[in-house]
Specification:
It is built from three helices and eleven strands. The longest helix has 10 residues. The relative contact order is 0.24.
Length: 191
């Protein structure tokens, strides 16, 4: 069951969902979602320095991306074909009885900006800032600004609380992230 605005407010009050900094419910609460804002940290790919990314090696530790921090009110320009990792301004903590689902905003989608390529589900027990997989599918550059509403998160109730929430998994690779991290896919490979 997807939580309505009424249920989201209750979950925020009883601590099943914790979002910091505190939401402006007037502008960020929808009928069944909360809008999250763009943070100021971006991770861009160094495609001029690396010919490819080998998912089986520890090359991911070599820094095939670099971090760019944009000051408030300064632009970050997404060129056509760009793919960057970004982070939400808000930190989200989800109880073991809920999951979060991240969706792009229609207003940005109409400009060619996609917010996530694959990673839309935030497991029960999630704790951290959401990393966004931003892409510009359009033909024109699009200027993004830290603090702008970038995505919406919905919440769904599980049939029962998760036995092992994400925050308790030994294999949780992205717990408590505060900036966009590079992929840790090499940890999935069995050698």
């Amino acid at each position: 069951m997807v939580l309505s605005d009424v249920d989201i407010k209750k979950a925020l009050l009883n601590g099943e969902i914790v979002i910091t900094p505190k939401l402006n419910l007037q502008s960020q609460l929808g009928s069944c979602s909360v809008d999250l804002r763009l943070g100021n940290s971006f991770r861009v790919f160094e495609h001029s320095r690396y010919a490819y990314i080998d998912t089986k090696s520890n090359d991911t530790k070599k820094g095939y991306t670099s971090e760019i921090v944009v000051e408030d009110n300064e632009p970050f320009i997404m060129q056509p074909g760009d793919f960057v990792l970004a982070v939400t301004l808000e930190k989200i903590t989800i109880s073991s009885s809920l999951l979060g689902r991240l969706e792009g905003r229609s207003s940005l989608g109409r400009l060619g900006i996609v917010v996530h390529s694959t990673a839309s589900i935030f497991d029960p027990g999630w704790n951290g800032q959401a990393v966004l997989e931003l892409g510009n599918l359009g033909r024109l550059p699009v200027v993004l600004y830290p603090g702008m509403r970038i995505c919406a998160m919905t919440f769904e109730e599980l049939s029962s609380p998760a036995q092992v929430p994400y925050s308790e998994k030994k294999t949780a690779k992205y717990i408590k992230q505060t900036k966009p991290r590079e992929s840790k896919i090499e940890e999935d490979i069995i050698h």
